[in-house]
Structures are given as C-alpha cells and as structure tokens.
C-alpha cells in the first residue's frame, strides 16, 4: 500500500511539474512531463486536458483537439473539453464551430464569465455584434470586476464608431488592471488608439506616456508618439522618438523610414535618403520606403532613379496608390501629359481621397488645365 501511494505521488509530481512549466511557457518540457504522466495514467482527465493546452500553445492543433476530445470521452460533463475545442477552432479561424463548442461548454457551466467572454469574441469574429455584446454583458453581470469583457466590448464599440462608450469601457478596465502591468498596457494601447480615432491627440499622447511609465522601452508606444508628432508637423520631436526606437531596436525598418520622412519635411532630403536606404537594407520589400525614396529622388531632380524606385514599389504591391500618384507627378513635370493623366486616374481609382492632394499639388500644374484632369477631380468621375 505504501509503495502504491509513493508511485501515485511520483506520478502526480510529473503532472504538477508540467503545469508549472506550462505556466512558465516552457512548452516542450511541459509536454514531456504530461506525456510521461499519461503513460502511467492514460485516463486521467486533468492530464489529458493539460497536455491539450500545452499542444495548443505549441501550435500542434490536431493533437490538441484529440486530447480535448478525450477529456469529453472520459468525463462528458467537463466543460473544458468543449472550451479547449473552441480554442482550437478560434485558432483555425473556424468561428462558427468555435461558437458551437462554447455553447456546449456553457450548457455544462452556464455561469462561467470566462466562457461568456470567449463566446463574445467568437461572435464578434463572425460579425454577430449583437450576440457578442449580449455575451459580454452577461459576463459582466456575473463578475462586474472582470476586465476582459470591458476591453472586448470597447473594441467592438470602437469598430462601430461609438467612441465615447468605448472609452468608458476602457477606463473601467484600466481601473481593474491597475496592479497587472501587462494587461494594463494592452488596455492603454487600445484606449490610446480610440483617442487617435477621435482626433484627440493630446489624450492619446498622455495615454502613450502612461504606457512608457510602465515600460520605458516600449517600441510600439514610441513609434505611435512619433507618428502623432509627424501628423502634427512637429518633425524634430517626431525624429527624437524615432531615434529612441533605433537605439532600442537597430533593425526596426519603420523607424528609419519615418525618421527619414521627418528629415525630408525639415528640408534635409539627402539625409532622408540615407535613412530610407538603411530601411531598405533591412527590408528591401518595404513599399512605403520605395515610394518615399522615389519622391525624395524626384525632389532632387534624379528623375530616372525616382521612376525606377516607384516601379519597384509597384512590383511589391500593385495596389498601393502612392507610386501611381508620384509617377503622375513625375510625368507631369516631364511634360508627358497622357502618361501623367493615366497614372493619376489609376491612383484615384485606388484611393479617391488623393483628389485633395491632386487639387493643390504644384507638381501637377502642367496638367491642371487639361479637361481630363478636371474630370478626374470631379466627385463622380470614377
């Protein structure tokens, strides 16, 4: 009897070790422990479930699904079988089946706010916003201090343009996550993004500042602040944020691109090209850098090189409108009217908002009085 107890104790020690390793994201080691445990206890529900979770985290979805199904075979009343299968379906993008599994899990555990929150996410992905909101609201009825439904509800509302309501939900989530750094940072990013959508840049800047107080080296927050100051025309300040990103992440191609753009706006076009070339050395397929490089070369009068760069951008992404627009400018400056109009038409087909740029762009002055140009700028021309 004592030997049997000792064997059981050693076996379950493997299970405990696996759970600890999984919590530490040491996935392969956790899987090894769970497999060893299940070699001796193949009908242990907890072991099957934990192995399923570890396999899911590793991306081995087919075996994860098998393990979650095994949980249901061993204990048909265990909701975790269906919750696990729903997770697998969400990862596969099969949101309809995920909803079905979440509903089965809730049939076994109807007052579980975590399941309701996850069900809301699945409904949202399916485009069923009303059912998603109902799921989030039910989760909050059961647990008013559960932050995730506020966060997910806010994302849904922001997507519908209901920004004030989204801000209220996010502020509530912030208050709930004050002591949980990683969760708080996620919520603050969402809140800052909503403020940007509301064109409340000062509040967005303040919120990104809160993120940097929690994580001074947060590259995403620094990039976002640089972008805001670029849009505000505060190019020196924007450049300073991009410099910080480059120090933290020397291979961040976006930081070199945006620092270059800021320098170009300050009239330092040669330096802009240096930063763009650094960006392209990291990511030769960066369509934004290729287009910006063409624009800088055009500004320096290096037209053949500019045209080559614009065409390279279009090879990367034929649906990107700016190289067409810039080629229109280039051909207009050369006096090639038909080609300028043809490229402008294509740019406006892809992005009608470029009409506003075309209306005032001095590069297009040579074609401005052409009847075809005026037709292109009319609202219904396309």
Descriptive report:
The protein is an all-alpha fold. Among the domains are: 145-216, Tetratricopeptide repeat domain (Serine Threonine Protein Phosphatase 5, Tetratricopeptide repeat, Alpha Horseshoe), CATH 1.25.40.10; 233-282, Alpha Horseshoe (Serine Threonine Protein Phosphatase 5, Tetratricopeptide repeat). 78% of the residues lie in helices and 0% in strands. It is built from 22 helices and no strands. Helix 15 runs antiparallel to helix 16. The protein is elongated and about 85 Å long. Residues 1-7 have low confidence and may be disordered.
CATH architecture term of the domain at 145-216: Alpha Horseshoe
Give start-end ranges of low-pLDDT stretches: 1-7
Radius of gyration: 28 Å
- CATH class label of the domain at 145-216: Mainly Alpha
- The pLDDT mean sits at 94
Features:
mainly alpha; Serine Threonine Protein Phosphatase 5, Tetratricopeptide repeat; 78% helix; disordered N terminus
Topology:
Blueprint: H1 2-23, H2 27-40, H3 45-58, H4 61-74, H5 80-92, H6 95-108, H7 113-126, H8 129-142, H9 147-159, H10 163-176, H11 181-197, H12 201-214, H13 219-231, H14 235-248, H15 253-265, H16 269-282, H17 287-299, H18 303-316, H19 321-334, H20 337-350, H21 355-360, H22 371-377
Summarize the structure.
With 382 residues, the chain is mainly alpha-helical. 78% of the residues lie in helices and 0% in strands.
């Amino acid at each position: 009897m004592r030997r049997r107890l000792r064997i059981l104790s050693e076996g379950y020690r493997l299970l405990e070790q696996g759970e600890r390793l999984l919590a530490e994201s040491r996935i392969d080691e956790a899987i090894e422990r769970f497999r060893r445990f299940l070699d001796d206890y193949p009908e242990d529900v907890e072991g099957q479930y934990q192995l399923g979770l570890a396999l899911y985290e590793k991306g081995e979805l087919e075996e994860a699904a098998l393990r979650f199904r095994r949980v249901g075979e061993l204990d048909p009343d265990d909701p975790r079988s269906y919750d696990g299968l729903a997770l697998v379906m969400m990862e596969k993008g099969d949101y309809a089946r995920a909803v079905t599994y979440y509903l089965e899990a809730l049939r076994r555990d109807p007052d579980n706010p975590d399941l309701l929150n996850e069900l809301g996410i699945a409904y949202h992905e399916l485009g069923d916003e009303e059912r998603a909101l109902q799921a989030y609201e039910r989760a909050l009825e059961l647990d008013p201090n559960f932050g995730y439904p506020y966060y997910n509800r806010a994302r849904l509302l922001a997507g519908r343009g209901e920004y004030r309501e989204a801000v209220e939900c996010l502020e509530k989530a912030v208050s709930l996550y004050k002591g949980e750094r990683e969760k708080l940072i996620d919520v603050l990013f969402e809140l800052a993004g909503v403020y940007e959508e509301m064109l409340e840049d000062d509040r967005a800047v303040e919120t990104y500042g809160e993120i940097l107080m929690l994580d001074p080296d947060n590259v995403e927050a620094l990039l976002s602040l640089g972008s805001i100051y670029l849009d505000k025309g505060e190019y020196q300040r924007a450049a300073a944020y991009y410099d910080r990103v480059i120090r933290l992440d020397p291979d961040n191609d976006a930081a070199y691109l945006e620092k270059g753009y800021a320098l170009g706006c300050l009239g330092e076009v040669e330096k802009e090209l240096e930063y763009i070339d650094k960006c392209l050395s990291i990511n030769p397929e960066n369509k934004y850098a290729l287009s910006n490089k063409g624009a800088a070369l055009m500004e320096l009068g290096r037209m053949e090189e500019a045209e080559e760069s614009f065409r390279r951008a279009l090879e990367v992404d034929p649906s990107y409108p700016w190289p067409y627009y810039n080629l229109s400018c280039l051909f207009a400056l050369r006096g090639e009217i038909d080609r300028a109009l043809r490229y402008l038409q294509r740019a406006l087909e892809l992005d009608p908002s470029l009409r506003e740029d075309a209306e005032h762009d001095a590069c297009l002055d040579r074609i401005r009085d052409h009847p075809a140009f005026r037709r292109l700028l009319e609202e219904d021309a396309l």
